[in-house]
Amino acid sequence: MTTATAAPETTPIKVGAVAPDFKLPDSEKKEWTLSEFKGKKPVALFFYPLDFSPTCSKENACFSQDLSRYEKFAQVFGISVDSVWSHKAYKAQMGLKHTLLADMHRSAIKAYGLFHPGGNISQRATVLVGSDGKVAFVKVEADITKERDYKELEAELAKLK
């Protein structure tokens, strides 16, 4: 008898785990690392499937519109598999203010267990990392086409230290 286990890249990281460090470029090719915030500021990682898709566009517009509400608690990053150039065009077209990170090699997405193999994209997920570098909150949306719960998100952000 064999027992099947889910691949680590598709098993979401757990609350309390040390958040995997990453080095990813933004839409201006600036490199960002998670470790630069350790001991300084919590981080909100909003993983989303694709630039220019309907739900992702609506969500990113909401994040940008309400950025000041989120940034009072944490540094905000959107992360998808899209390229630096796609993010640059997307930000310009949408008028987005928050930082979008390009994970074209899916390294951060897989390290956080958020890889969606059927689409070769990220799941729609929120990971909040405390200033101690540990995962404080994880939520993977069961239906990738549905938006996050913004009230829940803000309540969880308020708990960060």
Offer a few descriptive terms.
single chain; 161 residues; alpha/beta; Glutaredoxin; five-stranded mixed sheet; two-stranded antiparallel sheet; 5 helices; 22% strand; globular
- Spans of at least 5 consecutive residues with low confidence: none
Question: What is the β-strand count?
Answer: 9
Supply Rg.
15 Å
Q: Which range best describes the helical content: under 10%, 10-25%, 25-40%, 40-55%, 55-70% or over 70%?
A: 25-40%
Architecture of one domain in CATH? 3-Layer(aba) Sandwich
H-E string = EEEHHEHEHEEEEH
Report strand order across the widest sheet. Answer: 5-4-3-8-9
Could you give a short account of the major beta sheet?
A: 5 strands, mixed
Would you state the CATH class of one domain? Alpha Beta
Briefly note the CATH topology name of one domain: Glutaredoxin
Apparent shape: globular
Computed structural class: alpha/beta
State which percent range the strand residues make up. 15-25%
Number of helical regions: 5
The termini sit apart by 46 Å
Overall pLDDT metric: 94
Describe this structure in words.
This protein has helices at residues 54-65, 67-71, 84-94, 107-111, 150-158; strands spanning 23-25, 31-33, 43-47, 75-80, 99-102, 115-116, 121-122, 125-129, 135-140. The chain has a domain at 47-158: Glutaredoxin (3-Layer(aba) Sandwich). It is an alpha/beta fold and 161 residues long. It is 26% helix and 22% strand.
Give the helix/strand layout.
Layout (H helix, E strand, L loop, with lengths): L22 E3 L5 E3 L9 E5 L6 H12 L1 H5 L3 E6 L3 H11 L4 E4 L4 H5 L3 E2 L4 E2 L2 E5 L5 E6 L9 H9 L3
Parallel strand pairs: 3-4, 4-5
Antiparallel strand pairs: 1-2, 3-8, 6-7, 8-9
